[in-house]
Design a protein that fits this description.
202 residues, alpha+beta, 6 helices, Zn_M74/Hedgehog-like
Length: 202
């Protein structure tokens, strides 16, 4: 691992994680290149900001659950290859019901050069500290659809409120939101704004 990168759970205590791309539970339907361990990796600066976000979330009765952090460039290349393969329908209904694979890139849901590869971007959600259950957000991780956009129509008041809680927590702690994905946040003062890393997560 690069010097300034760490496992998030070692620096930001009390944050849950489920590294989707290390599992079969993601839009490609299998573990993705470069994800050899179910751990979340990021820069030390990211972890410091996440620790603040965790404390802020706790004050509102929530915990943080991370789905992704640092993403090796080889994983992004794997996404590109996957997008060029024939549709088999295995993950379409859950992750991209209204678009084709290639359109994920055209519409900004997946990028050929991902901010995740710079080490200071996370995909995450909230869960209730009292119940341990994920907060309803009006759509799951990597649902590539307009309902995942900030300000989307067609979600309940409670779901919209939970998205706003997450956004407020993250923006207060130094992150920028991404319009198309309610779960995606990037550290404003990221330490490697122009570097795309490719070391695997092991």
């Amino acid at each position: 691992m690069k010097e300034d990168f760490v496992f998030v759970d070692e620096l930001a205590s009390g944050i849950r994680w489920d590294a989707k791309y290390a599992t079969w539970d993601n839009f490609t339907g299998k573990p993705v290149d470069g994800y050899l361990a179910n751990r979340i990796v990021g820069t030390r600066a990211l972890c410091t900001a996440l620790e603040r976000a965790r404390e802020k979330a706790e004050s509102l009765g929530f915990g943080l659950l991370l789905w992704d952090g640092y993403r090796p460039q080889r994983a992004v290349d794997c996404f590109l290859r996957w997008s060029e393969q024939p549709e088999d329908g295995r993950t379409k209904l859950r992750h991209y019901p209204n678009i084709g694979r290639a359109e994920m890139f055209e519409m900004g849901y997946v990028a050929a050069k991902s901010g995740h590869s710079r080490g200071s971007t996370v995909d995450l959600t909230l869960y209730g500290l009292a119940t341990g259950e994920l907060a309803p957000m009006g759509g799951d991780h990597d649902l590539m659809d307009s309902i995942s956009h900030h300000g989307a129509k067609g979600i309940t008041q409670a779901e919209a409120r939970n998205r706003q809680y997450l956004r407020s927590i993250m923006e207060t702690c130094g992150f920028s939101a991404y319009d198309c994905e309610w779960w995606h946040y990037t550290l404003k003062d990221e330490p490697y704004p122009d570097t795309y890393f490719d070391f695997p997560i092991t």
